[in-house]
Amino acid sequence: MPLRQDIRFCTTRDGVRIAHAASGTGPPLVRAGTWMNHLEVEAQEADSVVRFEQLGRRNTVIRYDARGSGLSDRHVPEITFEGFLADLEAVVDARELATFSLLGVSAGAALSLAYAVKHPQRVERVVILNGFARSYFSASTATAELRAEAELILRTAQQGWESDKPFFREMFVRQLVGPAAPKVREEVEHRMRASMTGEMAARHLRCNYATDVLDLAGRVACPVLVFHSRSDEMVLFEQGRKLAAGVPGSRFVPLEASAHYLLTTDPAYPVFQREMEAFLHPGEPAGARLTPRQAEVLTQVSVGQTDKEIARALQLSPRTVEMHVAGAMKALDCATRAEAVAKAAAAGLLP
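Given the sequence above, the corresponding structure tokens read:
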């Protein structure tokens, strides 16, 4: 089944319309934008649905399409790091988040660190997966050969992203998901073409290749957890380790994974999920968190109230009550209401 998500739109300070979506329940976790986004297409992918449903058991996961991609404005005059940061700021403000945690995947890692430095009072924690602080055009150690490699990748993206010949995109698919199942590879390639034009893909990449947040990383004050796949061909393992070394007090967790995307079928995924949940919810047993409203609704269920009766008592709609019950069942990993009530009561989660 597709991921159930609440899609809305907001406008950045420079006038770009950004699409953002929320799914799951619990404290907010915002995924910083990356270069290949499409909220609706991603919500149809089997692996993505599983991944965000698992994350959504304990967090409200907020995602968005960066400028130039997905459901956001496709045609923008400039693609800059500052513009991408403005996208993130607009989404956080539109969702009225006082405090939240950030998930920075790939290019989203640099955005997460930059936002945490600029708005330290709002960011509680940062999780980074396969990210980088510097790249082809910004690293002082980048050789002429590496820069030429970057230019070749940019030309390949611009010329072959939308081509009917799949071998142009095969390079990107291989780096992104490695030896994944054919269905996964097909879904990733479909999202590539749906997310943006070849010209925009090249513009995004060129901006990413010029990213440099290494100095900013040293000013991050909140706790940071950094993961990196050892066999990542798109962002090398050493880049992830250098990023972690630049963030004071950060924890670095190597993943025995084979590609840039971490799929739920990868043996390293349970390690990632377990470590991230422990980091985002310190001192709490897994799966034992309910929002105040979920606990309130589940308490009413425990005394035999129907959804309509609960709705009248709490001044909600029956549909909203149903959604809170479903969220509680997911958070507690239960198949029935009765099981959820029993588990929540045993864990002391009900008033």
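The two ends are 33 Å apart (CA to CA). Try to locate this feature in the token string yourself.
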